[in-house]
Fold this protein.
Amino acid sequence: MSASVGAPRQMLRRLREVMAEHESAQARLDKVVMLIASNIVAEVCSLYLRRRDRSLELVATEGLNTSAVHNTHLKPGEGLVGLVAEQGEPKQYADAQHHPAFSFRPETGEEIYHSFVGVPILRGGDTIGVLTVQNRTMRQYSDEEVEALQTTAMVIAETLASGGILSEEVTAEKGRDSSIRFVGQPISENVALGHIVLHEPRIVVTKLIAEDPELERSRLQQAIEELTGQIDDMMERGDLARAGEHHEVLEAFRMFAHDHGWRRRLDEALATGLTAEAAVQRVRNDTRARMMRMPDPRFRDRLHDIEDLSNRLLRFLSGETATASTGALPDDAIVVARTMGPAELLDYDRKRLRGLVLEEGGANSHVAIVARALGIAAITQCKGVVEMVEPGDAAILDGQGGEMHLRPTQEVVHAYSDKVRFQARKQAQYAALRDVPAVTLDDQRVDLHINAGLLFDLPHLKQSGADGVGLFRTELQFMISETFPRLEQQTRLYKSILDQAAGRPVVFRSLDVGGDKVIPYFRGGAEENPALGWRAIRMALDRPALFRTQIRALLRAAHGRALRILLPMISDVSEFEAARGLIDRELTLLKTHGRPEPATLMVGAMVEVPALLWQLDHLLPMTDFVSVGSNDLIQFLFAADRGNERVSGRFDSLNPAALRALRHIVREADRLETPLTLCGEMAGKPLEAMALLGLGFRSISMAPASVGPVKAMVLSLDANSLATKLEDLLDSRTTSLREQLKQFAAETGVQI
């Protein structure tokens, strides 16, 4: 074997040609090992492929006894070949027969050969076979020679997978024909049967052999510069939410992208005659195989970063940087992503979107809120799903159980078909309640509103039988626009919203961006704690021109009708006073210029910052109404980021501390006769909504799909009995009242 020969491009091209010839599978494999042996100047070249039972079968050889082909099988981990497969990395031995792992097989006639090199044949980081060369003389092989064999093994892997020459007993990919169950955290409690779509589609490398090595080197260098520049730019801008990455993920990307070892391995792969794309694929497969076998789980966790980084680099090389939302979708798309921003989800065709599966993010993150608003099945914290799925795979997504069945068996399909039919019957029952007032058994009227954010949400108002729009998130229009919406654009949208509401109340929340809701064309600078930083009313008061433009649009859109404006993230009474002053100035200008005015104007404050709990006696007399933002209020109470999966599950919204805070708000609003509602995610879950009614809330707002289940709960509840029970429960020393409230519902017949 000669280092100067290596794995020349001519040999790799000839290898591809051989694999594509119209001959029997065995004839092609025989030619492959003969070609490799002659080009690498080896006395023996053998090819072992993995069987379904994970054993390795000798399928072709040049140099060993041909009678051993298909008759020599090695158990998982057996012999030097098994060792290469098990560890997923090259092994070489000058005197193989004296190695403790050597397994003598007399039928092969290999006892006369001493030196041995084996390299894994990797596909997606999984070992599907082993390529070996042997010689009689004892010798050490150079790094260049081993690298050449690895490149040859990669070409074999790609052509095996695409050429269809594997028998039924030999499989190229682990688990591709088997059903897999993933468990995550529920976001939206629906069920979807559909087919997988990767949010960031994988780039399929089809051209492996380089025509112009220098051109490939230049292309790779340019792509790496673009990749590192993009990552550095996102880090400097703090534009984490729009791209869907968390800060530590980008830090890991930056570390890998600037790693000299990673770049050196890419250069070495290029030197063996591969294209830039194939070199990235080679290094990814090798790194993945090595890290999968590391005992420390922290290293295996970094596989996500390797996969993402490689995919990004391949996308730069191919020029295909768009997400799947711009391409053709199946009619029943279940989108799978590591992370995603709310605006990215809104890019998808809602007629074809059935479900969403995320690896990262909390169940109350803003993309989760949008998923619920769309009424699709959705789960998060579904570990490893991006690596295991293939586009087009059949899947069943159970948002209620928090699980996904990939390539489900017929039994699972039948079971979920029954569940979908049952769900349809329940939806029919809820639809029958559409025009029934939400009144408790003890004659307490409850107003049920929907949360909305775009024009397409408004038909849900009539379909659900809701009393109005308790929260219209105006920021979504800004997040999906490429430029700042002009006054006329905003006015048209708000007028259309009021028109479609047809007299039912609509509460417009003023622009609430910042944190994980970033406007792509508005850079606010990096922040260590964006949820606690420059966002919502703070941004509005610092950029009054933006705020006043929105207020002007709302006032113009509402001429002759009632207008309700809700101010978010108020943490001090002075902020409400300042914002109310800007609104009054716009109203004065409207009158001065003789423009039509709203019939009535109500300005409210969101109660979502804990500091406001001890200012209610000063705030409430100034407001026309208040609305509790339970999502932020509870995350701030427990100092737990609801978008951080490590801490988002450490508290329960039914914790007595949270419920006592809400009770305090109810009591102050009653005392000062201020209209009160709650528009957070708590309101959309029947059990949590039941607790809110027990605390005294009589107006709540939720995702449209939740109105039916919550109304059914209201109609079966005696609110006074629950209030008495809840007073006793709030004095208990516990971390959650969930089980006690479930027991109350079961004993009293409340539908939750």
